[in-house]
Amino acid sequence: MMNQGGITETLAPPGTNSLEDRHVVDARHGQPSSYSSSTVGSEASSWTPHSVNNSFTGNGYSAGSTYGFEQQAQPPRRDDMNSATEASSLSLGSTSVPQDYNGYVTYQNPTNSYGYGTTGYTGYYSGYQQQSNHSYSQPAGAYQSTGSPYQPLSSFQNTGSYAAPPSYSNTYYSPGDYQTAGTYPNSSYGSQTWNDGNYANFSTYQYPNYPSTSSAYGSGNSAAASVQYQPQYKQWTDYYAQSEVNCAPGMENLSVASSSNPQCPTPGVPDGTQASNSQPPPTAVPSWRPEPVSSGLPSQQQPSVVASAGHDSYWKQHAAPGFQNYNSAAGHSAFYQPLDSKNAYGSYSDEQNSTSNQGPNLQYPVVHQVPQIHQASQQISPTLDPRRGSKVQIQTNPRIVSNLALGLTKTDKAGSGTTAVAKPAYIGVSLTKPNDKGLSSDASDPALKPATFPKSLRGYVERVLARCKDEEQIAASQAVLKELITSATADGTLYTQDWDAKPLFPLPDMDGLSNTFQSPSPLPTLRRSPGRRTKSRWEPLPEEKLVNKTPPLTAEPLKYGGYMNDRNRKPFVGNLESKDGLNTTSFLAVEQKTASFQKPFKRQRLSNSLTTADNGDASSDSDKESSLTAFYSGVMGFSNTPEERKKRESRSKRFEKGHGNRVEISHFKPKSAGSANLYTRRATAIVLSKTFEESGSKAVEDIDWDALTVRGTCQEIEKRYLRLTSAPDPATVRPEDVLEKALTMVQNSQKNYLYKCDQLKSIRQDLTVQRIRNKLTVKVYETHARLALEVGDLPEYNQCQSQLKTLYAEGIEGCHMEFSAYGLLCVILHSNNYRDLSSLMSRLSNDAKNDEAVKHALAVRRAVTSGNYVMFFGLYRTAPNLNSCLMDLFVDKMRYKAVNCMCRSYRPTVPVSYVAKVLGFAYASSVSGGSDEKDSDGLEECVDWLKAHGACLVADNNGEMQLDTKASCSSLYIPEPGDAVAHGDSSLAVNDFLARASS
Amino acid sequence: MAYLSMGEAHRRITDYLGRFSDAVSSQDVASLKHLLSLSSNSPSLLSLADALNLFQDANRLIKQSDKYSQFAEIVVPLFRCLQNYKLNNLVDAYHAYEKAANAFIQEFRNWDSAWALEALYVIAYEIRVLAERADRELSANGKSPEKLKAAGSYLMKVFGVLAGKGPKRVGALYVTCQLFKIYFKLGTVHLCRSVIRSIETARIFDFEEFPQRDKVTYMYYTGRLEVYNENFTAADQKLSYALAHCNPRSEENIRMILKYLIPVKLSIGILPQDWLLEKYNLVEYRNIVQALKRGDLQLLRSALEEHEDRFLRSGVYLVLEKLELQVYQRLLKKIYIIQKQKDPSKAHQMKLEVIIKALKWLEIDMDLDEVECIVAILIHKNLVKGYFAHKSKVVVLSKQDPFPKLTGKPVNA
User: Which portions of the chain have biased composition (kind: Low complexity) (chain A) (predicted)?
Assistant: First the structure.
């Protein structure tokens, strides 16, 4: 629902936004969108298979499963596809795709061989399916399902497609959609329709769906996308590849628009692109608009959208009400509505609930795709939206593909409990596994990434699109453009051709073009998404890796190729399709990649739990989210072993947090932005995206770190520390002023060290991420170092000390002397290495040597090296700052040495009271003891200590305890530390932990 | 500079190439090492550098001839190094030299005999010196100096080539010494350990077979390491070896050895003659020696303070500081002698008050507990024989040799 809401908001902007803007945005966002699309495709396929499988997919799944395992199961899939007549569609898609995406080429080729190419529309589906196939063997199932949806869609095509975008957004939010077990049944229906052979229809349907998905992405991602995406892009090279896939979806959208509802697609698409650029809502809106136009259903959808407009409500809406509504709507105008996100959701739910409506089912297939998209969006969204947090969790779960698959099947069963669901569930299981494999195989595909498009070409596309008067023309132009680019790529003139000088082609005939367009795009998207998945089973990990790798990659044309293509294409695609969808879809796709498998589970769960949790507030409590995720992951039982589960939980938490923050941002933006403001926002978003793009592409040779530095936007003072595993998300990073408050909060906090340490670490992380190095940084490290010293947490202290060293060296003011003294003491008391010590001492400035704390530290050093225990404990008593904390660590050693020395040199006895005085027991007890210190003078403590160390004590005539030195001389020993803990840090032991747990 | 004709430049270059290839083919180290010795600033090399800067196409010259092209790997970067060296572009010169050195060691590896060891020595030396200069240039430009480290890893590679069995092993110690110099300069002394281990554990090769100069250098550095480790017996042995075998005419080297040997000897109770300190300009130790002789704690402290920086930099500060206990011992001994003169029967009982009074005369203010502690430590460390009676605050000295001399053994812990 949130998405929808977001969409509605975005709608207004999209309309205003120019295609170019979209293009730009798309380029960046488009990548994400492409991901989403690809993932969507795969997910959709997978899902559809599940649902569809009951009837059709069952077969398809089986085939798919095998394929998936083979990864290149494509041939089998193809067969399946062919049987379904989807192959034709695939072929079309493949042709276009290959040019765009080299990596995909192989897949595409097979599809081409099918010769279905003529049925370009089907190609779209096939493309999706292929994607899914690539990633998952499921495709076959997907095809069927998609096929069925397509046909129904054909009737509804335009409206449906437009509506679909919204539905996509919805799907994102509603994890439950995955359960779309209903969708699966639908898909089966769809497959039937396929049999009917309405390829054109299919294509149109699919296309709308794709655009819609893209729009959904835009809505979900948009806000986050602008900020977060930059990092993400880099990080997610794989995603980029997927983004290409998204482009394909975008293409599909375009084609759909052209073929069936040119108007709808164009409006929807542009909107979507816009939305994708920055604000998801806008994208959603466009999609919605088309829907109304096409089917009249729009009114329903729109309302729903409006309702959802409250981003916060996204999830909730998804959760059920929205869906149901949609479903009802879909049921009636099933085809149209399916296109709509809401409809899709509804249809899903309906399907799940009552997989009865075949007609709706057709739509459902579309919906399925949508769900996929949604998933993708969810994946994306996690980064963006807080709500996504829950989604994110799901995503993380996806890592465990097999588990997910199982979970999915289960969910499907449960969700679709009605009829086909159970079967699909089985199918789904098999499918999911194949998918995983397929994904892995796909991962290899990324290598095939197409080369990037030259800027001049982009400009050319923009010119072409600029002259289009209506959506039909745009769609047609896009189709022509697509052909042009494809052929140019084929002859290798893509880069050599002077696009700037190339005359614009006459406005093409709408009818013919639409088909061609559609076919090419889908395939690439599908393939890519799978490919990305292939990188790693555990998506989170791959993502991270990708992130790391991407920056270097950007420099390399080939690697970037995929990325670049996405960008370039996005513009193209975006133009063709209406840019909107692509961009957004790309983001979604990325997420989907990770989440696609997981999504089903997650979605279901999310729908339940997330809606509850997320609905509450946009700025969902990160802890809640994390706990939820943890709970989910645990409940789901994905993990086979406790350790694995833990790991997953932690990972999912990590993502949740990030997502949660992002979601918040995105939501806030849309909300805050009035319809009037949308334009300006979009514009800024575009600018932002441009800069991001540039910086990203620049990264290779000369990274402008200043431009890349994150500027945090998080306003929460409290934040738990989590080790970053990806590029930082500005939404989760606190700006300097907030960090200052956070520091004050920690300093005044009454909570225990563990809490403070955690908070300070997160502050340090935020500082590092934003490259803030000033007095505040020093203050934070000093605070942390002192706290660590107080509790004897030396590892943490050492970290701070080393940071402080460099910070001081940079000339930043702070308590330099105090920490020089600590540094000295550390070396003295711990390493006690001559060379280190003298080099450290030789580096002390005269100022330092005159400093009280440093003087004290130097004196301590002398006392230690000479073994002068009297001096040592005298200094202990007068220690400035926290010097005594460091000395504490040496006290026992010093005492033991002293007693040893006394035993050798004193005869016959030494009064224990003297020992207690000289060895600081009196002082220690007066510090800690309170009122009775005068009486004991630390005597008892000293006696205990001496006894514990094997000393021989006797009472003299006056009853005073004496240390019998001669007897003790040979009996002294160092006792085993009684409070030793396995982790070697007794200061952080059980008590603290329990206190923390109970608080 | 006089005008240099193109023909002359060409002649110089071909002349150098000819000499290089002749030296290699006839295994004539003496002339080969001169061709590699950059820092010698020999006129022939400098004029060659001029020629190279004029005649830019030396590479073609090398490649044209089969005779020269087999050394292209070495000579081409060497020429580039010479050019940069002449232009005082030391960082680039270092890079080129390292390349040439790598190519040379590659060749050297393939030569069965160790005939080119001398040339390798030159390279090892040159690369270190050049790296140091390049680092100076780098840090002057505000960049991080890292060339010396790179030179260190190159020399490590050379060491690997030499350290095996066979005739080339003789050269290992030279490279080791160059490595020591680098590591000590970089402050990464811990890296020395692996090299030392492979030198000292090799049974097949007697240490005495290494060249004298390398042995001295090696002993000097390992002796310094032992000082760092507070292993004074070993330090004394190694540094004494170095001193004994050092060429008596290299006074600077002797001084460097003494700089560490004197503190070591002091800490084992052996005091140097004053003339020695004079002769080798080690006067910073004079007051310390005086303090030890007199038991003048104040003098010791002021001497340490006066030369603190120097002592800290050379790393002997902490060694010298530990002499304090010996000064206390000396002080107590003096008191003991005075008491003995006054009243031999009670001489072995020394009141704490007396010690405190003596310290006061030295302008050192210490309270009872602290002095008691010092005395306890003295007894504990076996610098004083006897015991301390806490009740009466009296040090009861052994009647036999109450102040044992260290006589070459360090103060025991």
Answer: 128-138
